[in-house]
Amino acid sequence: MSPHVLVLGGTTEARALAGELSARPGTRVTTSLAGRVRRPGAVAGELRVGGFGGARGLADWLREQRVDAVVDATHPFARAITANAARAAGATGLPLVVLRRPGWRPGPRDDWHPVPSLDAAADLLPRLGHRVLLTTGRLGLAAFAHLTDLRFVVRSVEPPEPPVPPHTHVLLARGPFTVADETALLREHRLDVLVTKDSGGTATAAKLTAARDLGLPVVVVRRPPLPDGVTAVEDVPTALRRLDALARP
């Protein structure tokens, strides 16, 4: 029978991986999206949208669909999905490959302030600035809703979910962004601090360069740890090699 690979997707790397796997003769690929974005881009192979019902529901689906391997290529901050994937793979005895793009690293001229959570970022903000570019996504803005003295520009692909800070200007946009674009945005709104998650990759990294060039502090929310016993690969070619190695008898 043809091998069946489930790709837990939603990232550029997941889309690229699905394309590579689908191009292999006899390989069936299903990409699963959580459904948080209303208009996901095209994905090679089969597409599934929506949750599984936790680790047990995912394990049941893996058995029903006769999946041979699971690749978790979700966003680095999709902690619950990664935990469920690890538990479901363990329950079914299936191999799991976790694909995570490398995180960002500060340079000598960067003024970075790493924090463990959005709540910690909100606690730190008043000491760093008062006009904030907030690029942590549309979820979790409740952590900043009590900061009534600060002004926020919130950028996300989809409209943010309430509650949000009272003085908020929303920009709906999808990367990649250029350094010139990000510099113009920071200057136009007279922003003096940037808040971001350590998403990694190049699509949204230009804001870090723009902040560095303008001498602005950057609050960086660190990634959650992977589940115990789980390691990650950093790119699509390595994920493919890992899958090939797992398929060998």
Automatic annotation (TrEMBL):
Stored InterPro entries: Precorrin-6x_reduct (IPR003723)
Transmembrane domains' residue ranges: none
Keywords, sorted A to Z: Cobalamin biosynthesis, Oxidoreductase
Pathway named in the protein's UniProt entry: Cofactor biosynthesis; adenosylcobalamin biosynthesis
Gene Ontology terms: biological process: cobalamin biosynthetic process
GO molecular function: precorrin-6A reductase activity
Record flagged with keyword Transcription regulation: no
Keyword Oxidoreductase attached: yes
Protein name per Swiss-Prot or TrEMBL: Cobalt-precorrin-6X reductase
